[in-house]
Design brief:
Elements lengths: L1 E5 L5 H14 L4 E5 L4 H10 L8 E4 L18 H20 L3 E5 L11 H17 L3 E7 L8 H6 L2 E8 L2 E9 L8 E7 L2 E5 L15 E2 L4 H6 L4 E2 L3 E6 L5 H15 L3 E5 L4 H10 L4 H6 L3 E5 L5 E2 H13 L5 E5 L1 H7 E2 L2 H17 L3 E7 L20 E10 L2 E11 L9 E6 L2 E7 L3 E2 L7 E2 L4 H6 L1
Parallel strand pairs: 1-5, 1-6, 2-3, 2-4, 4-5, 12-18, 12-19, 13-14, 13-16, 15-17, 16-18
Antiparallel strand pairs: 6-7, 7-8, 8-9, 10-11, 19-20, 20-21, 21-22, 23-24
Helix pairs in contact: 10-12
């Protein structure tokens, strides 16, 4: 016995239709006890989701349309006694005749209207459920939140499983509160109702990995940049690339993703803050080979539209690229767009992103994430949010004022699995792509945003 609860419009009936269709597909006998809609309406509504339940058996407990115009009279007897007997006999007869393997009662509360009191209703339901379980019938019953909650406590207790559907400003959610004998993934999960019915996206729960860490370096293909990071970022790590708007974070991330695709295997790029046309145009202009790699099926690019998906669905999309298509490098551009575009509270989204990156690392997938720092010059923080524990590596880009001009620098703040240069290098994006200079050992004050020639190298600096 499974109880599906939720407010009207959250998908309870649609879930029941999926349950019956799957039974028909596997050869089960199925029965639909209903009262709010006719069987023809139910079949038609299911068909709009491409769900076929036309072969199901139906028992309609709703009144006929002529009840509205007729004036039935009862003499010397309580009319509720007649209705109760009629419905009870109809249900028992249908169950004994059809002997269903699967049964849906939608909604369960329709049986309340034929009982004399709440006490009789609960007693009848408990007896009915036991009767069905003795016949080894799997039952799915729906109940609305707007029903009396006290009236469902005993039913929830007797049920082997309880599923709750909700709809909030952060999107649709599904929670398995109870699943006796089997257990469940705790908490609520992503849910969408689309053209094919319900789509459920469980939370990512990374499992401990017994794989041996392989510190194979993932290089950018830019010699000076690879020298800066000690030969490259290790495979299976998370690298955050932070910096102010327009400094080149996306271009640098795309460079790493495409180089990894060319050298090591498939890469996947997820754009949260930029249109596909703009991203492709810039890559082509800078000589980043996105077209060639896509033609070779070594690179996929996805644009994530704002507020269209939950964190769980996004994780499902990424997992599909990794598990089904073999992606070994994932580039998420960027964390601010992720938090703005994905449904949910910001703190929860940080946790979901952390879970996703840990899962990917356990699969030896390399992750690059861009993070916008809203500070034009200087570096006061490695990331814009309290998410630095997620990162194995922190690379930053920044603007610096030098002799009245605005220049760019690149450096590394953190690298867990290996060494790196504790210097800064000039970073420039030209028509030929990214250019990285030699270590800037002749300047002071770069991280404060205003570079000054060092005393020991003042003459040389002035000559430069």
């Amino acid at each position: 016995m499974y109880l599906v609860s939720g407010e009207p419009g959250t998908g309870k009936t649609t879930l029941g239709m999926h349950f019956l269709e799957e039974g028909l597909r596997t050869g089960d006998t199925v029965l639909y006890i209903h009262g709010e809609e006719s069987s023809a309406e139910l079949v038609s509504n299911a068909a709009t989701f491409d769900i076929d339940i036309a072969a199901a058996e139906f028992l309609d407990l709703g009144p006929e349309s002529d009840f509205f115009t007729d004036d039935p009279s009862y003499d010397l007897v309580n009319p509720q006694d007649i209705e109760e007997r009629r419905y009870t006999e109809a249900i028992h007869e249908a169950i004994r005749e059809i002997d269903p393997d699967r049964l849906i009662i939608d909604p369960l509360t329709q049986l309340r209207y034929i009982e004399a009191s709440e006490y009789h209703y609960r007693k009848r339901i408990l007896s009915f459920i036991r009767f069905l379980k003795e016949r080894e019938t799997t039952v799915l019953a729906t109940v609305s939140f707007d029903s009396n909650p006290d009236g469902t406590n005993e039913i929830r207790s007797l049920s082997d499983g309880v599923i709750t559907l909700t709809r909030t400003r952060d999107g649709r959610r599904i929670e398995v509160e109870k699943n006796r004998g089997r257990g469940q993934i705790e908490g609520d999960h992503g849910l969408e109702i689309r053209s094919q019915g319900l789509e459920v996206f469980p939370k990512v729960r990374p499992e401990p990995s017994d794989r041996t860490f392989d510190p194979k370096p993932i290089r950018s293909g830019i010699e000076e940049l690879d020298e800066l990071v000690g030969g490259g970022f290790e495979r299976g790590t998370v690298t955050f690339i932070s910096g102010p708007p327009g400094v080149g974070k996306t271009t640098l991330g795309a460079t790493y993703a495409t180089q990894a695709a060319a050298e090591y295997g498939r890469s996947a790029i997820y754009l949260f803050e930029e249109r596909m046309e703009v991203f492709l145009h810039r890559c082509r202009t800078l000589g980043i080979p996105v077209d060639e790699l896509r033609d070779q099926d070594l690179l996929s690019i996805h644009v994530i539209e704002p507020l269209a998906r939950s964190a769980e669905e996004f994780a499902h999309i990424v997992r599909h690229e990794v598990e089904e298509r073999g992606a070994e490098t994932v580039f998420i551009d960027g964390i601010g767009g992720y938090v703005s575009a994905i449904q949910g509270q910001k703190d929860e989204l940080d946790q979901e992103l952390h879970a996703l990156t840990r899962y990917l690392c356990n699969q030896e997938v390399t992750i690059f994430v861009t993070d916008a720092i809203h500070q034009i010059t200087g570096v006061s923080a490695g990331t814009s949010r309290q998410i630095s524990p997620i990162a194995d590596n922190l690379m930053f880009l920044s603007y610096v004022e030098l002799r009245g001009s605005l220049r760019k620098v690149v450096g590394v703040l953190k690298k867990r699995a290996g060494g790196f240069e504790h210097t800064l290098r000039e970073f420039e994006i030209t028509s030929d792509g990214i250019s990285v200079g030699e270590p800037m050992t002749n300047l002071n004050g770069i991280l404060s945003g205003t570079a000054q020639p060092s005393r020991t190298g003042q003459t040389d600096d002035e000559s430069q």
